[in-house]
């Protein structure tokens, strides 16, 4: 029978990576470039994901697979996990990634009635 590992050893093995400040700055700049116009006909999540991918970052779901979904409603907000693309590995046929422990993508939107366009704010926390 294999002996149990100490809790410290287990925590070190599953410890999430941290995004370095220089890499965070690149990710922030990528998101800001996409959201520069502020007003949109739709929420540009695909464009944000593509911009982040260019700097080596992937948007994640709760199960650490690449995020996919839709946003509904004339207003709302969401916080999404981010992870390094290079951490990806195939598990049970799905690409899974580690998530950063120190950053998240926050998006807020509001559809203005007179303009009928979304005002979108996004940032990396």
Topology (SSEs and partners):
Layout: H1 7-14, H2 21-34, E1 39-40, H3 45-54, E2 57-60, E3 75-84, E4 89-91, E5 94-96, E6 104-112, E7 117-124
Antiparallel strand pairs: 1-7, 2-3, 3-6, 4-5, 6-7
Helix pairs in contact: 2-3
Helix/strand/pairing class, anyone?
A: alpha+beta
Order of helices and strands: HHEHEEEEEE
Helical content stands at: 25-40%
Beta-strand fraction estimate: 25-35%
Please count the helical segments.
3
Total domain units: 1
Tell me the major beta sheet. 5 strands, antiparallel
> Spans with pLDDT under 50 lasting ≥5 residues?
none
Mean pLDDT score, rounded? 88
Tell me the distance between the termini: 44 Å
- Give the oligomer, counting copies of the same chain as homo and different chains as hetero: single chain
Question: Nearest-angstrom radius of gyration?
Answer: 17 Å
Using the alpha-carbon principal axes, give the shape: globular
Q: Give the beta-strand count.
A: 7
* Strand order, largest beta sheet: 1-7-6-3-2
How would you sum up this structure, described in words?
Helix content is 26%, strand content 31%. With 125 residues, it is α+β, with helices and mostly antiparallel strands. It has one domain. It has a 5-stranded antiparallel β-sheet. Strands 4-5 form a two-stranded antiparallel sheet. The longest helix is centred in the first third of the chain and has 14 residues, at 21-34. The termini are far apart. The mean pLDDT is 88.
């Amino acid at each position: 029978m294999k002996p149990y590992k100490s809790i410290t050893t287990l925590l070190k093995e599953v410890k999430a990576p941290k995004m370095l400040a220089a890499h965070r700055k690149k990710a922030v700049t990528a998101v800001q470039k996409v959201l520069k116009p502020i007003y949109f006909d739709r929420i540009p999540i695909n464009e944000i994901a593509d911009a982040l991918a260019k700097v080596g970052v992937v948007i994640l779901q709760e199960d650490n697979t690449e995020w996919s979904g839709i946003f509904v409603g004339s207003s709302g907000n969401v916080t999404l996990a981010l992870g390094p693309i290079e951490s990806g590995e195939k598990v049970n046929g799905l690409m899974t990634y580690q998530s950063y422990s120190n950053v998240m993508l926050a998006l807020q939107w509001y559809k203005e009635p007179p303009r009928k366009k979304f005002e979108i704010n996004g940032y990396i926390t």
